Amino acid sequence: MSTETQPPVAPPETRAWQLMLVPLLVGSLVALTLGVYGSLHEGTGVAVNIAGFTNHAAPTSAAKVTLTTGAVLFAVLQLLSSLVMYGKVPGVAAPSWIGGAHRWSGRIAFLLAVPVAVHCLYAAGFATFNTRVFVHSLLGCLFFGAFVVKMLGLRKDGMPGWFLPLFGGVVFTGLVGLWWTTAIRFFSTFGSPF
Amino acid sequence: MTRKGPLLTLLGGGVLAAGLLVASINAASGQRDDAEQDLAGAGQETPSPAAESPEPEESPEPAEDSEPVTYVGWVDGGGASVAIIIDGDEATAYVCDGVTVEVWLNGPAINGELVLTGDDGELIGSYDDTEATGRTAALGREWTFTVEEVAPPEGLYAFADTIVGGAEVDGGWIVLPDGTQIGVLTVDGESGPAPELDLATGQVEVEGTTVTVERRGVGG
Fold first, then answer.
1. Mean pLDDT, chain B, whole residue set
2. What are phi and psi of A68, to 5 degrees?
3. Which of A176, B63, B111, B158 is spaced 20 to 30 Å from A72 by Cα?
4. Does the residue A161 lie in any domain?
């Protein structure tokens, strides 16, 4: 935040909520759409194959686990670069390229997660048959919804200071939770995806 | 607002998702067409596969189309049993604890990988010529398993119909190599252990009516 005396428009609090309204609405709609589509659409058990893991015992799951693990690694970079950007790491000054690094690590993480989500939604759908898959299904909707809120919110000036940490945190936690509720199981059944 | 980056990120993800979705729909409908053809072929009671008319030679049926393969066995720890039938690139699994839990799962069997789903469970695993192995979840419980390929009369038997008297009956039996039967019978929504199946005749008595149960996986 710069040190300008007064924001030129309206009382800041009303304005903040007005600013957040559209991102929150769109993000909620995205989360809701994913959940409703996942529930209504009957899982086909099949979707387009993502990558060449044909030598693995479970090629589709291996590809998904690899992409998700990649997304989580880039998300860790997200967390670290944002801490540096806001000067939260003692003794580390934010280098000029940190903003670009943050943006691109986020884009890569998001793009790695999209094919996995499409496969989950199309081949399996929103499932509730045990706690693990229920939590996983909910987190999937939450993750993409919160990500949309954060992206749309980024475009507006005058957001409250807690906006980015909160939604960045939800997005990060959601992704780690998604990874945790699936990849652990894969690793214990098959070991390495390679 | 001039900050377009976040919007482009979202659009990029959206375009990628849409493209993959379209590709998936094509992939799935391609498979469904195959499955419908298989079903249509199997539905004709298979009166005479090769005899009588010379027409079959002209049919485009792929020669590699093999008989369905059945795998059955206990889950690790013995709390339930699993039957998997692989027919070409499609698979059906039945997971049953012999008391009340029974789940039907379906999905593709491609390149030795099984990803089967259903309303109340899932099964993820791999298979080869002799056995299938993996994990399955049914009605909130999870098991690992390794099950072996078997030949009739071992395998999976199922019955679903309305019997004399109007009761809705739905049953599944897994017959293991040692002759053990693990089955659940649901009559009008009430599930319980299934009565013993006479493997010689395929008959079983349900609510005082004798019904004939079919072994799954032969002819469709």
1. 77
2. -65, -40
3. B111
4. yes
Domain extent at residue A160: 13-190
Q: What are the pLDDT digits (tens) for A46-61? A: 555 555 555 555 556 7
Using 50, 70 and 90 to split pLDDT, how confident is the model at B39? very low
Strands (E), chain B: 69-74, 81-87, 90-96, 102-110, 113-118, 121-127, 131-138, 141-150, 155-162, 168-175, 181-187, 190-193, 203-206, 209-212, 214-215
Q: Which of B9, B116, B121 lies closest to A107 in CB terms?
A: B9
* Residue tagged 């599930």 (tokens): B191
Contacts of B28 in chain A (CB under 8 A): 44, 46-47, 122
Are B26 and B103 a contacting pair, CB within 8 Å? no
Q: Is B190 on the interface with A (CB under 8 A)?
A: no
Classify residue A34: in a domain, yes or no. Answer: yes
For the segment A134-162, the average pLDDT, to the nearest whole number, is 92
User: In terms of Cα–Cα distance, which of B97, B84, B95, B99 is closest to B121?
Assistant: B95
Any domain includes A8: no
- Number of domain units in chain A: 1
- Taking the CA of residue B148 and the nearest CA in chain A, the distance in Å comes to 17
Question: pLDDT value at position B2?
Answer: 52
